[in-house]
Write a structure and sequence with these properties.
CATH superfamily: nmb1532 protein domain like
Strand content: under 5%
CATH class: Mainly Alpha
Oligomer: single chain
Length: 139
């Protein structure tokens, strides 16, 4: 699909809804990890595994492979590139945390780092990147 025919406002709306879902999950994970309750944090990660695995991977694919190329010219590749680089860190931390939850050896520091990074990342996308992208795509 070429960027001219992509329903970008709807795509960004869907991405924002997904941000809300992952932040809700990671809020529960972060609360448990912050208390040092690795058992509860691991349970929450396991319960949200579909969202953290396939859901997050598809979400990142849409942003990296479709949205970012469509807006990079207007907003600058440095901006979209910074978000794409964070996606690499997010996946690395996610993989470490999911593996730890599965093995009953949850790395709480990595868990808290993932929660903080995803919170910051998704809020910046929703409050800064997506509004700027909407304006650039309309103009």
């Amino acid at each position: 699909m070429t960027p001219d025919f992509q329903p970008w406002p709807e795509v960004m709306g869907t991405l924002s809804k997904e941000h809300t879902e992952v932040r809700a999950l990671l809020s529960r994970v972060g609360e448990a990890a912050g208390r040092g309750d690795a058992t509860e944090a691991a349970w929450q990660i396991t319960a949200g595994r579909d969202l953290l695995s396939g859901g997050l991977d598809e979400h990142i694919r849409v942003e990296d492979d479709e949205l970012f190329p469509a807006i990079a010219g207007a907003l600058g590749e440095g901006i979209t590139g910074a978000f794409a680089e964070e996606h690499v860190r997010i996946r690395r931390l996610r993989d470490e945390v999911v593996a730890g939850a599965t093995a009953s050896a949850l790395p709480l520091a990595a868990c808290l780092e993932l929660c903080d990074l995803l919170e910051s990342h998704t809020v910046r996308e929703d409050e800064m990147l997506f509004p700027a992208a909407r304006q650039a795509l309309e103009g």
